[in-house]
Amino acid sequence: MGLSFTLTAQANSCLKGQTCHHVQNSGHHQLQPKLSVHKANREKLYRGAGNYVVTAKRLNVRGDNLLDGRPVGQLEYGENIYVYRFSRGWAMIQFRNEVAWVSGRYLRYQPSEL
């Protein structure tokens, strides 16, 4: 779906010692939407509870206290995890029977098969 519009530009062309002439240009332009691949993918992201796959080579897992910043482990590319909820870009998961968090940026939703 492209957008179409007509552009009209007006300018005065005045050179020192010459008379000013009124110039009007008109043109028809066609715009094609240009979404980056990243933006297009971001718009399709599901951010709710469910099954996800890790898309990073290694994804740090952080403990319940995100403020200390120390990883408690890592997940590998392609691992399947269950996310309980998202909060401010972080995904809450269960890791080694504890509540843990990973960056939601490196997760891709995997709808469950019924």
Model description:
By secondary structure, the protein is mainly β. It has one helix at 37-43, and strands at residues 3-13, 21-31, 50-54, 58-62, 71-76, 80-83, 85-87, 90-95, 98-103, 107-109. The protein has a 3-stranded antiparallel beta sheet, with no helix packed on it. The longest helix is centred in the middle third of the chain and has 7 residues, at 37-43. The chain is globular, with a radius of gyration of 26 Å. This is SH3b domain-containing protein.
Topology, please?
Layout: E1 3-13, E2 21-31, H1 37-43, E3 50-54, E4 58-62, E5 71-76, E6 80-83, E7 85-87, E8 90-95, E9 98-103, E10 107-109
Antiparallel strand pairs: 1-2, 3-6, 3-10, 4-5, 7-8, 8-9
Characterize this entry briefly.
Residues 49-110 form the SH3b domain. With 114 residues, the protein is mainly β.
